[in-house]
């Protein structure tokens, strides 16, 4: 509970200012997070020993190293050209017909987002989508917008697909398989619902020139893969890494260790220049997480999270189902306004406190407490709300911001309001489906 | 240093610039106003760069065997643009008494093939990489204005 009101007010104030600055996008979010972290450390609202430690209130290094490991693996794999090959091949299979191209490219994006990470996926899928659209003479914006939706829906499916899932998985100590069993089914349903909704909203906008088949035939995907040997090694290590993810609970190895092992193995056998690989790692994103965790650490240490959790516990005890569903919709709404990452970073420790409350306030919180039957709907509602809610606005998730940036640099800016017209209905449909899913499966 | 210059006015089109590049044999053309004041420099690399989409850098190749229609469209579109749209508004400049070593280092450090020589903002000549290479043949040259 709150022991020093001044400290609590200071921590809360720093957090609110940082949150507002991140939402306003006036200053880069990483700079805001690091400045906020420096402020809470300098005013000793959280001790550095706690902030840099691995315990409650410290940086969640599991999240950082899982992301770092996957970023290294993807950075090496993308050099092989396999992603370009996949995208062009799927456009060829679709024979250049815009509707089929959208569906197939979205499916590829969704699957890659589930297996890799949705931000990295769109980072290489968006440019190749622009190339395909230009080559076929079709409008690129509908394709890029579909890609944003597909990446967020696909990312929802697995532990490693979307940063909110990595954070929820780490806080609740939920493994890769738990996400497959619990979130993949609803992600598949959401994708199936997304396709007709999207096609209806974009009806009349997906037209191709009459010579589209000839134009498609001009693409030669075989040029994409230059280094077969590296490609084979990357695929082998990726497969091994996935086997590792599937088995990590049985092996009692955390997912971050699997990702780092995969990264080290690929660096060893790919024989690439390490500095070039590290240059492509998104350090800004990783440091954004570090800064956020430290700021949230101050909220925990000063007792603010405890107070908020106390309020949440009262609600959850009165009406567990209603509170869980409210969390789903609030997460979706909040993720649309701010990036979903800071939202999850704040709610995660509240849910840890909720687990403690449900368990009768034990001194040591165990995995059984975190994953009790009463807790599970809350974790899944947070993950679903944050991941799918990212589709609501152009700044809802990092993947959206990345696609918008690539589109703008290439002369096809996606307007905030223009995106909202499609983002809100898609989010509403997928969150409504999630509500039904959570209700029948967990409540 | 070359004092006989082929220059363009800022409202000349890129198409005209391309014609002058071909007829003069110069890959870089200074853009000057009516009073001879230097406004910029137009070179070939950004012209060709403009014909291609930006995403090419991220994709790495156009992956095509057939023609790429946006390229042809861009050729027609770029030809009509004024040179002021594609020129470098801050090209490398030096004065007539700048030592050749400094001019050479400017070229290498900024990956440029020429340095424009100005006197009170007015263009008076161009030192090209060839002028520096000539020094190897005629080492007695010391300054930009030496013939």
Explain what this protein looks like in three dimensions:
The complex is a heterodimer of chains A (443) and B (147). Chain A has helices at 5-24, 29-42, 48-51, 61-78, 82-93, 98-115, 118-136, 140-156, 163-172, 176-182, 184-201, 212-217, 228-251, 255-270, 274-279, 283-301, 304-318, 320-337, 340-358, 367-370, 376-389, 398-409, 416-442. Helix content of chain A is 76%, strand content 0%. The model of chain A has no long low-confidence stretch (mean pLDDT 92). Chain A is built from 23 helices and no strands. Chain A starts with a helix and ends with a helix. Chain B has a single domain (14-137), classed as CBS-domain (Roll). Chain B has helices at 14-24, 44-51, 56-59, 69-79, 83-86, 100-110, 129-137, and strands at residues 28-32, 38-43, 93-94, 114-119, 122-128. The model of chain B has no long low-confidence stretch (mean pLDDT 91). Classes of the chains: A mainly alpha (443), B alpha+beta (147). At the A-B interface, helix 7 and helix 12 of A face helix 3 of B.
Question: Which terms would index this structure?
Answer:
heterodimer; A: 443 residues; mainly alpha; 23 helices; 76% helix; globular; B: 147 residues; alpha+beta; CBS-domain; three-stranded mixed sheet; two-stranded antiparallel ribbon; 7 helices; 5 strands; 39% helix
How does the overall form of chain A come out from the CA principal axes? globular
> Helix segment count of chain B?
7
Distance between the termini of chain A: 30 Å
What is the chain-wise order of helices and strands of chain B? Answer: HEEHHHHEHEEH
Please render the helix and strand layout as text:
The complex is a heterodimer of chains A (443) and B (147).
Chain A: H1 5-24, H2 29-42, H3 48-51, H4 61-78, H5 82-93, H6 98-115, H7 118-136, H8 140-156, H9 163-172, H10 176-182, H11 184-201, H12 212-217, H13 228-251, H14 255-270, H15 274-279, H16 283-301, H17 304-318, H18 320-337, H19 340-358, H20 367-370, H21 376-389, H22 398-409, H23 416-442
Chain B: H1 14-24, E1 28-32, E2 38-43, H2 44-51, H3 56-59, H4 69-79, H5 83-86, E3 93-94, H6 100-110, E4 114-119, E5 122-128, H7 129-137
């Amino acid at each position: 509970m709150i022991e020093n009101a001044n400290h609590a007010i200071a921590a809360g104030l720093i957090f609110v200012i940082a949150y507002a600055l991140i939402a306003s996008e006036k200053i880069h979010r990483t700079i805001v997070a690091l400045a906020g972290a420096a402020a809470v450390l300098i005013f000793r609202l959280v001790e550095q020993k706690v902030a840099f430690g691995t315990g409650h209130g410290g940086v969640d290094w599991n999240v950082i190293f899982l992301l770092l490991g996957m970023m290294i693996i993807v950075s090496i794999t993308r050099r092989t050209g396999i992603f370009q090959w996949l995208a062009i091949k799927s456009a060829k299979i679709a024979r250049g017909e815009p509707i089929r191209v959208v569906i197939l490219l979205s499916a590829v994006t969704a699957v890659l987002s589930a297996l890799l990470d949705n931000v990295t996926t769109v980072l290489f899928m968006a440019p190749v989508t622009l190339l395909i659209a230009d080559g076929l003479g079709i409008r690129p914006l509908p394709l890029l917008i579909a890609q944003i939706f597909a990446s967020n829906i696909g990312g929802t499916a697995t532990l490693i697909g979307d940063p909110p899932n990595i954070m929820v998985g780490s806080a609740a100590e939920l493994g890769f398989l738990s996400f497959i069993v619990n979130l993949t089914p609803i992600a598949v349903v959401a994708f199936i619902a997304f396709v007709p909704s999207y096609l209806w909203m974009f009806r009349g906008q997906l037209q191709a020139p009459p010579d589209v088949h000839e134009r498609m035939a001009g693409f030669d995907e075989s040029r994409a893969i230059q280094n077969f040997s590296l490609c084979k090694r990357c695929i082998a290590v990726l497969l091994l890494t996935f086997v590792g993810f599937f088995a990590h609970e049985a092996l009692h190895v955390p997912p971050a260790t699997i990702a780092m092992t995969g990264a080290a193995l690929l660096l060893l056998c790919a024989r690439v220049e390490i500095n070039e690989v590290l240059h492509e790692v998104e350090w800004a994103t990783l440091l954004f997480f570090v800064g956020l965790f430290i700021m949230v650490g101050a909220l925990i240490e000063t007792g603010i999270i405890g107070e908020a959790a106390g309020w949440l516990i009262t609600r959850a005890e009165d009406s567990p189902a209603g509170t869980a569903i409210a969390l789903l919709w609030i997460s979706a709404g909040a993720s649309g306004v701010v990036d979903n990452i800071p939202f999850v970073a704040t709610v995660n420790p509240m849910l840890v406190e909720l687990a403690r409350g449900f368990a009768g306030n034990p001194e040591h919180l165990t995995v059984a407490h975190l994953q009790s039957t009463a807790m599970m709907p809350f974790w899944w509602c947070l993950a679903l709300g944050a991941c799918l809610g990212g589709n609501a606005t152009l700044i809802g998730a990092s993947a959206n911001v990345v696609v918008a940036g690539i589109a703008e640099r290439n002369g096809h800016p996606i307007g905030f309001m223009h995106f909202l017209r499609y983002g809100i209905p898609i989010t509403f449909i997928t969150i409504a489906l999630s509500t039904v899913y959570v209700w029948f499966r967990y409540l | 240093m070359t004092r006989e210059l082929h220059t363009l006015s800022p409202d000349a089109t890129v198409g005209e610039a391309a014609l002058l590049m071909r007829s003069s044999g110069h890959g870089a053309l200074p853009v000057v106003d009516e009073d001879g004041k230097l406004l910029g420099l137009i070179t070939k690399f950004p012209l060709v760069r403009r014909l291609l989409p930006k995403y090419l850098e991220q994709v790495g190749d156009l992956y095509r065997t057939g023609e790429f229609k946006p390229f042809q469209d861009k050729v027609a579109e770029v030809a009509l643009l004024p040179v002021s749209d594609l020129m470098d508004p801050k090209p490398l400049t030096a004065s007539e008494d700048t030592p050749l070593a400094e001019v050479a280092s400017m070229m290498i450090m900024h990956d440029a093939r020429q340095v424009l020589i100005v006197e009170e903002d007015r263009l008076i000549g161009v030192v090209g990489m060839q002028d520096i290479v000539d020094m190897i043949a005629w080492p007695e040259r010391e300054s930009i204005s030496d013939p």
